[in-house]
Design goal:
This protein is an all-alpha fold. The chain is built from 30 helices and no strands. It is globular and about 90 Å long.
């Protein structure tokens, strides 16, 4: 068992080193620290303030994005948040990042190796959790699955908190399975619970399930139940005490640790929510202003945006539930599909739909033993509830995937034993069930995946980074790739939003600087065919032919076409 465990850790480390090597050569290795619209730069800034000596966060760092400026000035946001000193989000990751930077420096490899170590720790905890509940065979397969699971690998090199959230959640689960009647162990469990909450706010929803689990375990022994419950609460209070002291010292509400509750519910549940990814609802300012920081009022006002159309609410919630189990990796901060195209490690890694297929099969097979493993069932229920609270993105599902890996391994071991014992019929039925679940998972969100698989942001940021380095050729390649991957369909007669000014115009400029106007014209001609109603594409073609290729007549034809399309879009004759 020890040898298998060490081999799994070695594989996990090797795969992570290989992936770090790929990411280190991509522009995001640098620009993630300065991309102001993403959480990565925010976390970098916050951890930097801590390293500069503001350990208590007296000058509290909050996100400061363009869409927030459009809603309200910073003073108004601070009022909605409960004051200027409330942490913007659960604070454990920025403090952990600051510690990493103190130990390993600010370079990509130093921080990346520290975060890879977190990833290896998560792999170890998956193994230990599976070994504790299901035995060594399941642990071995679960460990290898976690070592090779793509979405975990994707997020570990980046300055986002999800890897830490997975590690703290698994640590809590593993430790809880080891708690018997020792008050000391339950004291530590309470501390680990607070760590999980301070890494990921939605972990708080697990609290009532832990209480229920405690009652179910010790209901026939009231004194033991009282002792271990008190120990758990004491541990939680002890771990939470430094945060309370900090809040009192800086003038924040004593029990506050995040501003996210109101805003996340609004964005995830308003009538015009994106459900998958992030879209700012039209009623955002109205709801935030009237709620004035009160969660209950914000929930009521958010639901009021449906104006009694509860079928629409149910449709949104059903779409959200499908998104939790869909193979599609909805983007937030980083796009799985963009980076999987560039990293062979990710391209050939284990995917979510496979884990869901085998994991759900494992849950089905384990239903008779569910009472013994109810802690994991409760964790999955609480985590799904947390996801339903907001919008769905691939990285938010990592804690679910970590536990499903255990059940997926259990299903694989069960299938192997059935086949080895010659019980082909139940093995075939189970295999067909897993295959059906996988196919369903891969096709739960066909429209969203077709339309939103790629976005312009990663391409543009990479192109800009290459251009600023003087590497125009790679900048051109990124911009052309963006145009090649833009969504095209009968319902999209023009380039998708933000592609024209963000991508197409820089593409033409860089092509001209490289003397590749003819190549640009070829690309734009294809776009004009794919997006026949796009006046901007026709206008760019006009400039390329007239100013780049010296074909004034051809340029004028495209200018005239652009003028006609512009008039049609305005509804003028």
């Amino acid at each position: 068992m020890t040898r298998t465990f060490l081999i799994i850790l070695a594989v996990a480390a090797a795969v992570r080193l290989a992936n770090l090597g790929v990411v280190s050569r991509l522009p995001i290795a640098d620009y993630q620290r300065t991309w102001s619209e993403a959480d990565m730069a925010f976390n970098w800034t916050w951890s930097g303030r801590i390293l500069q000596g503001d350990v208590l966060g007296r000058d509290t760092v909050h996100e400061d994005t363009d869409w927030m400026h459009e809603i309200a000035p910073v003073e108004t946001w601070q009022r909605w948040w409960g004051g200027p000193h409330v942490f913007y989000q659960a604070p454990l990751y920025p403090y952990t990042l600051a510690a990493m930077r103190r130990v390993a420096g600010d370079g990509f490899w130093g921080v990346g190796l520290c975060q890879a170590l977190l990833g290896v720790s998560s792999v170890a905890l998956v193994y230990l959790l599976a070994a504790r509940l299901f035995g060594p065979a399941v642990a071995a397969i679960a460990g290898f699955g976690a070592a090779l699971y793509g979405p975990l690998l994707l997020h570990e090199p980046f300055l986002i908190r999800d890897s830490l959230a997975v590690t703290t959640s698994l640590l809590l689960l593993w430790w809880l399975t080891r708690c018997e009647e020792s008050a000391g162990r339950w004291l530590v469990a309470g501390m680990f619970f607070v760590a999980a909450v301070l890494a990921r706010e939605s972990a708080l929803l697990f609290a009532p399930f832990v209480a229920l689990w405690l009652v179910q375990r010790f209901r026939t022994r009231p004194r033991t139940l009282g002792r271990v419950s008190l120990a758990f609460v004491a541990g939680a209070a002890l771990a939470f005490a430094p945060l309370v002291a900090r809040n009192v010292a800086v003038g924040a509400p004593p029990l506050s640790f995040s501003t996210r509750a109101v805003e996340i519910f609004l964005i995830g549940n308003a009538v015009d929510t994106a459900v998958i990814g992030v879209k700012i609802p039209a009623a955002t300012r109205t709801v935030l202003e009237q709620a004035d920081g009160h969660l209950g009022r914000a929930i009521r006002l958010t639901l009021a945006t449906y104006e009694g159309d509860w079928k629409r609410l149910l449709a949104n919630e059903w779409l959200k539930l499908r998104a939790i189990f869909a193979g599609y990796e909805a983007m937030d901060d980083v796009n799985w599909y963009y980076f999987a195209d560039r990293s062979p490690v990710l391209r050939f890694s284990l995917r979510y739909d496979v884990v869901v297929a085998l994991g759900v099969l494992g849950l089905i097979l384990d239903r008779r033993n569910a009472a013994r493993h109810r802690l994991l069932w409760y964790f999955l229920i609480a985590t799904v509830g947390g996801l339903m609270y907001g919008t769905i993105a691939g990285r938010y599902r990592l804690p679910i995937a970590a536990v499903l890996l255990v059940y997926a391994a259990m299903a694989v071991v069960w299938l192997a034993r059935e086949i080895a014992d010659g019980r082909w019929r139940p093995a075939a039925i189970a295999g067909a069930t897993a295959l059906a679940i996988g196919v369903i998972s891969a096709h739960l969100l066909p429209t969203a995946e077709r339309q939103s698989r790629y976005r312009p942001d990663e391409f543009f940021m990479a192109a800009r980074a290459y251009y600023e380095r003087g590497d125009q050729r790679h900048a051109y390649d990124e911009l052309e790739s963006a145009l090649d991957h833009a969504y095209a369909g009968p319902d999209q007669p023009t380039l998708p939003a933000r592609y024209e000014n963000l991508i197409a115009l820089p593409f033409v400029r860089v092509a001209h600087e490289l003397g590749r106007d003819a190549d640009a014209a070829t690309v734009l001609e294809r776009l004009a065919t794919v997006y026949p109603k796009d006046a901007g594409v026709e206008q760019l073609l006009g400039f390329v032919y007239r100013d780049g290729l010296g074909k004034a007549d051809e340029g004028q034809r495209h200018f005239a076409r652009a003028e006609t399309l512009g008039a049609e879009s305005l509804g003028t004759p």
